[in-house]
Every structure is written in structure tokens, then in C-alpha cells.
Input
Amino acid sequence: MAELQKDRITRGDFLGFGVMGVIMGGIITVPAAAFLLEPIIKIDVLGQSNVGDDWQEVGPVADVPVEEPEVFIVEFPLTQIYGDREIQELAPEVPRSQEDFTLTNAVWLSWKAPILEEGRLGNQANSIGEPEKPAFLEEKSEGFTPEEIREVEESLNILSNSCAHLGCPVRWITNVDGEGEFLCPCHGGIYDINGDWYGGPPPRGMYRYTQFEVRENGRLYIKHAYDVEEGIPGFSTQEPYVV
Amino acid sequence: MIGRLRSQTIETGKFLADWMEDRTGVVTQLEHFLYEPVPKRGAWLYTLGSATLFLITLQFLTGILLLFYYVPTTDHAWNSVYYIMNEAYFGQLIRGIHYWSANFLLAVIGLHMARTFFTGSYKAPREINWIVGVVLLLLVIGLAFTGYLLRWDQDGFWASVVGIKIGSYSPFIGPYVTHFLLGGDVVGPATLARFFAIHVWLLPAMIAPFIGIHLYLLRKHGEFGAEFEYTDRISKLHERQREEGYRQHEFEDDEEYDYDDELDDEGGTTHHRRDGE
Amino acid sequence: MTDVQKDFAQGRAAPAKPKDEEVITEENVFDRPDETMGFFPGQVYKDGVVATLLLIACTVLSYAAPAPLAGPADTASVDYVPRPEWFFFFYEQMLMFFPGYALIAFGAVAIPTVFIVLLFALPWLDRAPVYSPVRRPFVTIVGVLVIFVVLMNMLLAVSRIINFPGQ
Output
């Protein structure tokens, strides 16, 4: 092999390498980073969401029994890459699949049980009484007056099936003592009928939908928004994300 | 007739080999590769590393094959995997090999790592190779995690949900990790596209050069099996050291000079031997 | 005095192999194993045997136990029981032991990160030029403990999974 030849780097070379580095680095890295980090920019910086901001029907509230919760499947419109509605609107003349992409959520509805004694999260569960369903729902399932609507809204638990621990689907079971409870099958997180923490590793109660309204027709409508507890910012703020 | 044909074939073969050697040097390289001396006693133990390499190669091959049928969209991913399993010729075998060799891969990597750990093979001068090995382990775990979602079935889907949620507990960067992996704020088409890109291009493209470095470093420093490959030499060393200890008592004055001299000599021979390789 | 001279002085025959005349020091003792063989065919043959067995196992298993495919993903499922793959069992089980915000972050992210950093640092944590597991008991015990904890966690995970109602 030939001897190595190590020439001196002149000031011009140095500057030239610098300019090349800036141009190459700038063109290669900045657009690529923005391309990859688009979701972070859109969601965490601009505060957008992939889930459509419309009211979605859950179901008739009168169908929810007193003793145990009832699950409803709700479809939210989803705008994510090829599921984005805007694409279809931008190029309406191009024929292709017009399939709507949706995000389906399982929503647990139950009637609030009064909290007799406040527990302490991670230590002692709330002690609760019997769930209370508004009495007028026995007679009518629609055509509510504004007062009745408010009463229903105040006594409903609207819970996400995504476990607050690691997002597994939560189910309703009856335990050996004959008491019902929400159970997460992954790591055994348990919640009471109000969705509050009862046992196991979850750091909080089940996620509640925060935007909901009961309409005159006796049906519940919700938006895709949860009660995210502000913990230490960036450290313990948890969203149900994912679903 | 046959004899002449044979000799002609041999001639041609020799000519081709010589020609290739002249133009690329590949024959010498190949000989170095094939005839390097390796430790003999623990040969079966050292098949763990090559088994890992073999299984990763299987992953690459079957992975490329699966891509001919797999469709990474939320509405068709499951169907395409179902097609591979039930309709495609030998689809069950190709996907079965991809699945089972992935499982074996994780197990064999664990054994390979345990062997390296307990025989102390990570020590100088092989530290970098250990580090490259840990990087490879992490990459394989990443591949195992991202591959699970691609089927878009309940198993893979919910396991990925749990995995992403775990990522969301990372201090300070939790939401960013989650949104990066999800490609949005909820799981959807973008999530599958991202996991597909990571599983099929990003991680394999990263794992390939690291495998190359791992093998290059292995050959550079030679395989270090275990101490039992060196028992004779170690006992000789100890014997010599013991004798030197005796001499030290006998000639207190000359000892220092002798020892240094000897060391220099050895340094020279060792160096020379390495150059010769 | 070299080995040869010593042997000669003591009336012993010179060693059969001239290579053994090499003076073995702390530096070069691990340069070359006692016994070597050519990579080909010795090692390649053994590697081939293992590779062939693995390929046969993969082939047999892909028909005896086909790669699983559960029903299509359903975000609104309430009766599905998610389970990780077996190689994540120990990790998943570990998460059970860390309830609450701070502890989940600690168990799920901090501990694995520390463990990986320790793995990277291992060659510098254990630098003594001693290789046999018997002669560096501390490292060996730590390694055995790690494997023990991983296996026990896997066992716990398996027992939890098979005892789960409805499984």
C-alpha cells in the first residue's frame, strides 16, 4: 500500500468543509426531522387531535341498569394519514376507496354510587353505597325536561375502557363476595362502579369522558376528551392516549 | 475423454480463481476467513453465536418474502396475514419460520449472552464487541416489539398498546415518545405505518452494520471461548511466575534488571508475532 | 534461563513442539488457546449442525404449532385478555410490583434503563484479567441472581396467566 499523504488543511478547505456541512446537514436533517416528528409537532406543539370534534351518540341512558354498568361502542371519526378526510376533499375527482376510518371506543356507563367515606388512592378504596338511578327513567326513556336532563347528567359515570395503568381493556366482573367491580385483566387493577381506584397498580381511577350531554331524546352524546389529571408537568401527566 | 474434460475443467477453475484473486483478492480473503485457527475445546458452546447469525439471516430472508404479500394498512393488514397463512403457497411455512426463528432468536441470544458473561469474554480487548452485542440485543428487542403489531390482530395490537403506554411513563419525554410511535394522539393507520417502517427498514438497516462490526471485531481479536481453552498456558505462566518468585529471593540485586530485560524481549516477540498474522 | 535451557540443565528432553518455547507472560497468555482448529471445517461443521437442527425445528413447528393469528384488532374490545410474548413475561410481571405514578415510571422505565447502562458498562465494572466464573465469584453471583429473578418473574407471570378467570 502506498504511503499515507497527510496534506495540511488550509483555511479555505476548512471554510469550504464548513459551508458544505451546513448545506448538507441542513437539507438532510431538518426536513427529515420535521417529517418524522410531525405527530409531535401537531399534537404537543399545535395542540391538534386526530379524532374528530363532533358529538357522537352513545345510546339511550334508560338502558343502563342500576346494579351494573353497561358497555356501549362509540365510533369517532379518525383523521390520520390515509384515513384523513381532507385527502378525499382535496381530490374529489379521483375515484378510490371512500372508506371512513374510525376509532371505536368501548364506553362504560353506570349510575353513580354515593361515596360514604373518601379513601386514599393506592391505600384505601372509597367506601360507597348503592348506585342510584333517577326514578323517572322507569316511566319514560325519552322526552326529558331540562331538569331531568341535568339530573341524569349528574348521576352518570361515563368511563373509558382503557385501564389507567397500561391501557388494557377493562371488564366488569362479579367477585367471590358477589360484589361487582371493574377488573383490568393485565395487571389486576380494580375499580369500583364509579370508576374510582379500588386496588392494584393503577395510579388513578378510570378515565372519564369530560364532554357529554344527554339530549331530549333520552340519548347520551360524547366527545373524545378525558379527564387528564395535571400532575407534575412532563413527569406524571398521563393521558389515555392510544384509544 | 472424461479425463481430458476433467483436467480442462480443473484448468478453467484454476484460471477463474487466479483471475478473481488478481482482480479482487477474494481468494486470499476467503482462505483467511475459512482457515483461521479457532479454539477447539468448547466448539459446541461457540455455535450459539453462529446460530444467532443464522436465525437473523432467516429473519431477513423470510421477512423479505412476507413483504411480497403483506399490506401495511389497518383495513388490510390482518387480511393479508390471513391470506399468507391460508392461501399463499407455503405461506404457513414462511410465516412459521419467521415466527419461530424469532422466538428461537431471543432464546439463543440470551444463551449467547450468558455464555459471554460467565466466561468473561467481554474483557479487554473485547469491550467494544460486548457493547456492540448489547446494541444488537436492544435492536432485536425493538424488532420483536414492532413486529408484533404488524399482524393487526388482538394479540399484537393490545401488546403494543401496553408497550406504548409503558413508553408514556418515561419521565419528561413520555408524551413525545408516545405520539412519535402512534403517529398521532390515538392508535390508527399512522401507528401501523410507523411500526412497519421501523420493523422493516429502520431497525434491520441498523442491525446489519452492527452485525458486521460484531463479526469484524470477533475476527480481529479472535474468539475468546473460556479460560479452559488456556489451561496449559495458564499453568505454564503460573509455574514461571513461581520460579521467578524463588529467583527473586536468591538474587535481590539483579532481579529488577533481569525482569525488565525479559519483559522487553517478550514485548518484542509478541509484537512481531502479531505483525506476522 | 528459558524453559529449554532449564529443561536441558535438568536433563530433560527439549519440548516436542518448538512453539512452546514462547515465553508466556500475563500479556500474551490469552493470545492463543492451547488447542486450535481451523475454522473450516471443524467449527463450520458444528455451526452447520446447529443451524440445520434449528431450521428443522422451525419447519416442524410451523406446521405443528402454526404462527398464531388472533381475531382482527378491535380498539373497543372489553373481553380480550392481552398477554405479552414469553420473552416480555418477566418485564410485564415486574410492572405488577410498582403501583402508582412514580413507581410505574420507576419500574417500567428507570430500572430497565439503569440495567441497560450497567450492561454497557460491564467490561469496565469487571476489569480484572480473570476469566473463569469460579475465580470472580461476585460477578458470577450477580449474573446468577439476575437470571434467577428473570426466571422467577416468568414463573409468576405464567402462574398469574393460567390462573386468570376465563382463561
